[in-house]
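Form 7-S
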Amino acid sequence: MSKPKKVITEYRHYDLSPDFPLLVLHGERWHISDVKADRLHFHNCLEIGVCHTHEGRLDFGDHSVTYKAGDFTLIARNYPHTTYSTHGGKSLWSYIFVDLDEFFKSRVIMSSSGSLLPSLSYYIGNKATSPKLYSYILAVIEEMSEKQPDYTTCVTGLMTAILVEITRLCEHESPAQKAIPNSSMLSIHPALNYIHDNYTQQFPIELLADMCHLSVTHFRRTFNTIMGISPLEFINNTRIEHACLLLSSTDSSILEISELVGFHSVSSFNRAFVKLMDIPPREWRKNNSNGESVMKKKSVLEYRGWL
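Output:
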């Protein structure tokens, strides 16, 4: 019996601004090919998409669903997928990428279960069944594209309304509308989410392996295969990414920042920072004092791997 074909998975990292962690991709560039990609991909943040023209399929590796003009999609971070148009078509999309935790950091906005979008893996809706949510999404895209005075204030209000509407969908959706991550497709999904939420804390690799229902050896090997680096390197790089945001946007000392992002000593922070960024954090801060994350190397956490 031949072995089942492995699914290729790619991690796409979006470097969101620390001041306003929301990115919009919009315009004629974002036509989706009718050729199905040879790999799935997943992101470090929530993806909100709107299909403007034509139709196609959204593939999740073990199953797929159709989409058409007027549909919108919500795909949680770390959830593998790919999109392709029907034969002969090139559907036009707009996308919003947002880190909800960072976006609403200074605001007490929680769902009834106590966290932001606790149950969402993916959701597909349309302007006929969810007209308010559809209109809010389009309004965010328009505001971010035009950037009129006080647009960030307007977008913040719209994102609050979007969050409320999505939370309502999560609470009332049918089982067919909500997907649970397929462990055979992305077995390290729980670990990625845990690292995202707890990178400031100290925790053993055994904890990550256990939540993925893998032995430590198998977990390390699987993680390295998918992400291209070890779990510890990924954790440290996640900390360095957030340290870069603090270095460029606050006056906190190097010691304070190292502690805030989870390093147990400033010396280990400096070593990890130089390993990833090629220069010490003090020098990096001097070069990036304008608040923009200008990297000497490739974007932090931009990895590719195989699954």
